[in-house]
Amino acid sequence: MTVKIECIKGDIAKQEDMMAIVNAANAQLKPGGGVAGAIHEEAGPELEEACRSMAPIETGEAIITYAYDLPNEYVIHCLGPVYGVDEPGDELLKKCYVNALRIAEAHDVDSIAFPAISIGAFRFPVEQATEIAINTVKEMISELSVIKTIRFVLYSDKVLKVYESFFKKDE
Fold first, then answer.
1. What are the tens digits of pLDDT across the range 10-51?
2. FRET label pair with 106: which of 76, 118, 145, 157, CA 20 to 30 Å apart?
3. What DSSP character marks residue 117?
4. Closest residue by Cα to residue 25 from 106, 109, 120, 101
């Protein structure tokens, strides 16, 4: 099976053609800044209500909810590691991608969009986080039977360029 992997600059909360989007969540699964704030704002108050009984989550863990007012069916919430605090950071970040993909497969999700987990407020170095994200997704492809499209949705030209440079290394 072929899985399409792509990266774009955009808003994670506006990926109408994706069955699931991934939220770079906080442990309490509450609205916040960045990705979590944007997703909660677009999804409406039902998302926060749904998350309340599932919190807190552990670093590297993924849980799934409906997407409510978002154009998607599901939101998969992952708690990425805070750089230099949650250790081993590389392994915990990898776990986010692995767990998100596994939960997507279990819910028959055929397309999923990821933000750049942990690079914002959690201060993970962009190049290191990008390498972990891309390598983990590529390693997981052999385990996927439902997912056909994996998209990285990046909020800035700078981060998009880093992702694109990692894809070019493999060509």
1. 999 999 999 999 999 999 999 988 889 999 999 999 999 999
2. 118
3. T
4. 120
Name the burial class of residue 3, with classes exposed (0-12), middle (13-18) and buried (19+) by CB atoms within 10 angstroms of its CB: middle
Q: C-alpha distances in angstroms, 30 versus 57, 119, 129, 145?
A: 11, 18, 23, 32
Helix (H) or strand (E) segment spanning residue 100: helix 89-106
What is the DSSP pairing of strand 74-78 with strand 62-66?
antiparallel
Dist CA 64 CA 51 (whole Å)? 9
Beta carbons of 147 and 105 less than 8 angstroms apart: yes
Measure the CA–CA gap between 146 and 111, rounded to whole angstroms: 9
- List, in order of start, the domains of the chain with CATH numbers: 4-169 (3.40.220.10)
Q: What angle do CA 40, 98, 82 make, to 5 degrees?
A: 60
**Residue 34 zone, left/alpha/beta (φ > 0; ψ -120 to 50; rest):** left
| Beta strand extents in 10-59 (DSSP E only) | 20-24
Is 66:39 a contact under the CB 8 Å cutoff?
A: no
